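Forum > Structural Biology > Help requests

Title: Can anyone predict the 3D structure of RING-type domain-containing protein?

Hi all, first post here. I have the sequence for RING-type domain-containing protein but no way to get a structure on my laptop. I'd be grateful if someone could post the structure tokens.
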Amino acid sequence: MWLLGFSTFVLLGICSVDALLTVIDPEKGDVIVDVFNDEPLVPFTSTIEGYIEPTNPPDACTSIAAPSFPTDFDLNKIALVNDTNCNWITKVCSAQAAGYDAVVIFRTPDFVNKFDRLLSDKKWNTSEHEECSFNITVTIVHYEDGIVIRDKYAYDSNVKHNYLVNIKEEDTPWPLKLILCFAFSTLPFLACFCVGSAFRYFKEKLRIRRENRASQVNLNKLFPLVKFREGDPYEDCAICWTHFTNGEKLRVLKCLHAYHPKCIDNWILKYQRKCPMCKRLVTLGDSFDATDSDPSESTPLLASSNASNYAPGPSTPNHHVGFFNVPGHAPENFFQPSANISIENSVNHDARPNSELSAQSRFSV
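Reply #1:
Sure, ran it for you. Structure tokens for RING-type domain-containing protein below:
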């Protein structure tokens, strides 16, 4: 909420038309003595240059005295008015009726918000101000700047040389203003989007962590650790390719393939709920089982349909064949017998049942 308010404040400051009030010393070759930032209440295009003096009375809520400049004065007459006691329309109308060409209003310390104040004060069509249709330049400055202008740079008829005051629109390129306006207008939405995305990301990470913690507990219950002993039907881990040592703790899956606990736990919890060797599903009873059980585009064809048929028996050694099997990519010669395997296939062309023929087909290593 505070970010939206800050961006709105900056946006109003950037997109509003800014102006500069410059004090010039004509005796020193038009040297700029001081510069003040002001905000025009009525848009203007031409530069106003002249002498400035406080009005009498200072608030200009009633009829004010005429400017004290000479009658043959050919520069603009600028009135300096404080922001008290009445609305701005009354002050401007009083200054225009007295003969001033521009009005500079300096804000008092109790000034809160120039935009709210402007909306409440601009009663252009009320019966009170129907007779006032001003066409002079109106701008405002900060309270401290107004005090400095009044005390140091105001016109004094008893002084031979007075300071000139120049009021002009700030030379800020409009394309840059448009870019800044667009940037600050989208900043709150971009920030909300980033915060929302980060919140969803960390929420999902926490959910996955809780699921993994529960899955680790189920993994320990379903597949407890066993100690490796010489003569067991598995010799090495197919994930890290390291031989098992006597007394080493292993995790044996239902398909009777054994792995190091660290290797298979990371594989199952972070990668895939399948045995790395036979692709048989490993179910832990959590929400991730459904996603891994459905065949996908990357699921091996044989493993997805007949995974249980290829599960090895109790006496099948835990050998790997010199490669790391990535799901969905069967290596060459995977289903071909190696050079160390001889095949004896005794086939008789008689009418014996298929069961007898298959019994004579055997593999011997």
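Confidence is low (pLDDT under 50) at residues 112-116, 118-130, 301-365. The radius of gyration is 45 Å.
Shout if anything looks off.
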